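Risk register update: the risk that structure generation would not scale has been downgraded. Supporting records follow, first protein first.
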Amino acid sequence: MIRGPKKDMPHSDYLVALQPVPRGLEAAATRDAVFEKRGTRWVATGRLGAEAPVRRLKGPGWTGLKAEVVAGITDGTGFHGAAGNALWAVVSNGKRSVVADTQGIVGNDRVTMKTIHSIRFPK
């Protein structure tokens, strides 16, 4: 997990979480993230079932998927979409993957994407 100064992100616990998983892209995307494969097309599902478009990613030695889905918080009065859109990405070398996500308040920026694109898998 990458964290920033609490004063700059008072309603978030982290900027971006990066979770390595021992499986390929399709399994990681469906088991560890918010992606679903429908035929040859990928979709991402956020809170309340809202679907989001999925973009393919490519980096050195890996391929991946990325989407921004509806995020929010649940409290005693129900779900609130005040958190905006959370970024989800999965990158994989075919055997291992890294799942990345943000909470939707901070971390959905080019610096986070630069971090995701910097991921390297050992040979």
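Supporting record for the second protein:
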Amino acid sequence: MPGGGGKPAKEITSLVQSVYSLIEYGDFKKSLLVLDEILQIAPNDERALLLKVQILLFFRKLRDADKTASMVIGLYPKDHHVYLAKAISTFLYTNNIREAISYLDKGLELKSDCFELIITKAQMLYWLNDASYNAWIQQASQIDSSRTAMFLKKYWIDELMVPPSHIGAQFHGLVQSLMFLASQQSFGGWK
């Protein structure tokens, strides 16, 4: 980070908080501009890069989102959360659920009790008609039953549109799911 002691860190924290607020209010265009501002100060800031993946997905810049997610994995290969972003971006960019699940599995190797990875794996297994999705839902429920119930009620996608990147209710639901999962970090939900 540039010189000045804690000033850049405080500035970044403040800017990240403004990004969360902008996302909450649905101003994704401005949130992307603020993220670019953060990345000018700290090009490898993990929070900013993960948020950028989300916003790029929202704008259907799937290749850019997947490329950014790959970069984040390269920078932070020991952080289990980066594999969630990569799994979702890979799924939307390539339509390959099995490859996406392989990224979830890599994250689960690092932290086997990560709620976000587990519930996302349950959703993707469901789309593959793999009955083991129930065991993953159960595992998520054991970690946090209220979050599991909320996810199942508000974000679960019963039927996957083909292609999954098609603009429509299913794509929007998937982006909402990603936003829900990622927003948990800002409220201390990521573990």
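The CA atoms of residues 80 and 111 lie 6 Å apart. On this basis the risk owner (M.S.) recommends closing the item.
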